[in-house]
Design goal:
Elements (H helix, E strand, L loop, with lengths): L2 H21 L3 H24 L1 H7 L6 H9 L8 H20 L2 E11 L2 E9 L9 E5 L4 E5 L9 E9 L7 E4 L13 E3 L4
Helix pairs in contact: 2-3, 2-4, 2-5
């Protein structure tokens, strides 16, 4: 084989090996992370379920807990199945947040107002979060609209509102809380400002 061709390849390989050693802050850390990678992958679901503090508490007596935490916090760390675990836990978190933040809405009174209309009184109770613009969907078989108020509801408090709706019967009137009037499913529904009624 020609020595002139082999020498540049040997020099290039040596440079790559030296650069890897220089760029790697701690070669021992890289080996530890690689050797613990499988164990950390197996514990990733537990980490997402428990959260960092409880995960550290549970595995405090294991030697790999710090290596795993480094991997979990590295945005470039990936293994087959990680996206599925992340999606699952993100969905659970979204459901839990929706349950926590969902205000309670209750119809207090329905009375005939004349001309095929009912005057309804309903209350909105904010569970644990302030509602700056309480909005509900009021519906019957004859009519539906979004009732918006600019009188906010304080955290852990209730406020009563009134609105009129066309209806043949008080039994068909329903009131549901709406998170946002910007929801595309509600785009075609009329909006009523309760302060102007």
């Amino acid at each position: 084989m020609n020595v002139l061709l082999v020498a540049p390849l040997w020099i290039a390989a040596t440079i790559v090996i030296v650069m890897i050693g220089i760029l790697s802050p701690n070669a021992a850390d890289a080996k530890t992370i690689t050797s613990n990678s499988y164990q950390c992958e197996a514990r990733y679901d537990t980490y997402r379920s428990l959260g960092e503090a409880k995960f550290v508490e549970k595995y405090r007596n294991t030697s790999i807990v710090n290596s795993c935490l480094k991997m979990y916090k590295d945005p470039n760390w990936y293994f087959s199945g990680k996206n599925k675990i992340d999606k699952y836990h993100d969905q659970i978190k979204a459901i839990e947040n929706a349950k926590i933040k969902q205000p309670h809405v209750e119809i207090i009174k329905k009375q005939i107002a004349g001309n095929g209309k009912y005057l309804i009184s309903y209350k909105i109770c904010a569970q644990n979060q302030h509602i700056p613009q309480p909005t509900v969907l009021i519906s019957s078989k004859s009519e539906q609209f979004l009732a918006v108020s600019y009188k906010s509801v304080s955290s852990n408090a209730c406020k009563t509102f009134q609105a009129q709706i066309k209806s043949q019967s008080s039994m068909e009137i329903d009131v549901k809380y709406v998170q946002s009037i910007k929801d595309p499913a509600l785009k075609s529904i009329r909006i009523v400002n309760l302060e102007r009624v």
